[in-house]
Amino acid sequence: PPMMTKIMDAVIRRIAPGLILDLSSTSPKVVALLAGTAQTMSIDPPGSEPDMTSPEIEENVASILGHKVATKSKRKKRLGNPRKAA
Length: 86
Description:
single chain, mainly alpha, two-stranded antiparallel sheet, 5 helices, 40% helix
């Protein structure tokens, strides 16, 4: 129902501002900013990439993206918001 969708959209938008939620159209979709929703992000120079088979990869974005996104939680909060991610 459209009313329920509006309520869900408002609640989810507070948690994930960059999320596009369209569940009531003929082709429902959910779209999120990748850098804001990734579990872990690592930006490494060629040859220094982490082992992709490792169960846990260390967050490594501060040297390239800056200290505003130095931790996982800071990155998700900042890059999950389209106004700040651009």
